[in-house]
Specification:
Number of helices: 3
Helix content: 55-70%
Largest sheet: none
Oligomer: single chain
Structural class: mainly alpha
Order of helices and strands: HHH
Number of strands: 0
């Protein structure tokens, strides 16, 4: 089993912006988008 396809930059930006705007927590966004909380944290940095 290989690595899943990369997430497009536009989708990463949308996820991070929704977290920063307070629309959802990192944990909620991670569950919804099926990515790790650590990934979202790296994208925010």
């Amino acid at each position: 089993m290989g690595r899943p396809p990369a997430i497009p930059a536009e989708k990463k930006a949308r996820i991070v912006l929704s977290v920063l705007a307070g629309e959802m927590t990192i944990a909620e966004a991670a569950r919804k988008e099926k990515v790790s909380e650590q990934s979202i944290g790296r994208w925010k940095a």
